Amino acid sequence: MEDVLTTEYDGCGRCLVAVRRLSRKTDKTSSPQRQADQNLQAAADAGGHIIAWADDWEVSGATDPMTRKGLGPWLRDEMGPVAGGLCAAVAASGSRTGACSHRL
Fold first, then answer.
1. Domain of 92, in residue numbers
2. Rounded Cα distance, 32 and 75, in Å
3. For position 60, what pLDDT does the model report?
4. Residue 44 lies in a domain
5. Are the C-beta atoms of residues 42 and 53 closer than 8 Å to each other?
6. Which tens digits make up the pLDDT trace of 66-82?
7. For the segment 25-82, what is each residue's pLDDT rounded down to a tens digit?
8. Closest among 65, 35, 61 to 50, alpha carbons compared
9. The CATH number of the domain where 58 resides is what?
10. Would 22 be classed as within a structural domain?
11. 22-26 contacts: CB < 8 A, separation 24 or more?
12. What is the residue-wise DSSP string for 26-37?
């Protein structure tokens, strides 16, 4: 899903990273497209724009968000500036959301 709408970082204070995750243990997680649509709508509702997608496929919600391939680099400040993050559901960020709430 590399063609999902993103814009450049512009320092406006509303540059967001959108998080999508699919579980490796269950099919209950929303589809990537549904999560993308929900994230795009949430960004628009907040007056923000998505500068990047932190996609983690086949990842357990119990996985520490700091160590995830897609989200982890953003949480560790390795990907550049960002105003915040959003996800379609708390489950997309992972069941260990406390580990990432300090950053995004």
1. 15-99
2. 21
3. 86
4. yes
5. no
6. 999 999 999 999 999 99
7. 665 657 889 999 999 999 999 999 999 999 999 888 889 999 999 999 999 999 999 9
8. 35
9. 3.40.50.1390
10. yes
11. 22/56, 22/57, 22/58, 22/59, 23/58, 23/59, 23/60, 23/61, 23/91, 24/58, 24/59, 24/60, 25/60
12. -S-SPPHHHHHH
Per-residue pLDDT at 89 exceeds 80 = no
Number of domains making up the chain? 1
Place of tokens 């907040």: 46
Tell me if 5 is assigned to some domain. no
Amino acid at 89: A
27 sits in the region (left: phi over 0; alpha: psi -120 to 50; else beta) called alpha
Q: Is residue 41 part of a domain?
A: yes
User: 76: Cβ–Cβ under 8 A, 6 or more apart, which residues?
Assistant: 66
Task: Answer yes or no: is pLDDT of 96 > 50.
Answer: no
